[in-house]
Design goal:
CATH topology: Maf protein
Helix content: 25-40%
Strand content: 15-25%
Distance between the termini: 16 Å
Number of strands: 7
CATH architecture: Alpha-Beta Complex
Number of helices: 7
Oligomer: single chain
CATH class: Alpha Beta
Order of helices and strands: EHEHEEHEEHEHHH
């Protein structure tokens, strides 16, 4: 039987996996430094972090599949932070208001034999020009807390998104199609009893 370890504390990633009947046997978040390297571009950064998370957790679970992921919001070459306070959330939303941005998803899978497989997914998202009332409403909701780029598309911020190209689940936190294909292609078989 395949053992799957999710190297993430994100409740959104766990919920997304359950949506496609994949239930990790264990959850073991990777505690790594997520600071971008000097001059690091979003596409490189997201893949580096996903791989680093998988490698950090792998020694604790020999013989298991280790699934790790990272999601970043980028405006041009600029990587936006996870909003941990209201000032950061407002700064992110001000930057995103009235323009398109990209959401990069990196998925890394370490197989029981030690093989590393990686996928990178890019979604494009447009945000309407936000009024001061909309800023205040969203900031008061607290929904932005801990979210890359200061918003959660699966929440009330959906009202601010007129257009999206690419994977919706990637913007939420895990590109499901690519993740399922990655797992199946490397021989992972879900435990039917766990997913029922």
């Amino acid at each position: 039987m395949s053992v799957l370890v999710l190297a993430s504390a994100s409740p959104r990633r766990l919920q997304l996996l359950r949506q496609v009947a994949i239930v990790p046997d264990r959850i073991d978040p990777a505690d790594i430094d997520e600071t971008p390297a000097p001059g690091e571009l979003p596409a490189s950064h997201v893949v580096r972090l996903a791989e680093a998370k998988a490698r950090a957790v792998e020694p604790r679970h020999p013989g298991a599949f280790i699934l790790a992921a990272d999601t970043i919001v980028a405006c041009g070459r600029r990587i936006l932070p996870k909003a941990e306070d209201e000032a950061t959330a407002r700064a992110c939303l001000t930057l995103l208001s009235g323009r398109r941005h990209r959401v990069y998803g990196g998925v890394a899978l370490m197989t029981p034999s030690g093989e590393m497989a990686i996928r990178r997914v890019v979604s494009q998202v447009a945000v309407k020009r936000l009024s001061e009332t909309e800023f205040e409403f969203y900031l008061e909701s607290g929904e932005w807390r801990g979210k890359a780029g200061g918003y959660a598309i699966q929440g009330s911020a959906a009202a601010f998104i007129p257009w999206l190209a690419g994977s919706y689940s990637n913007v939420v936190g895990l590109p499901l199609f690519e993740t399922v294909q990655l797992l199946a292609g490397r021989g992972y078989r879900p435990n039917c009893a766990a997913s029922s």
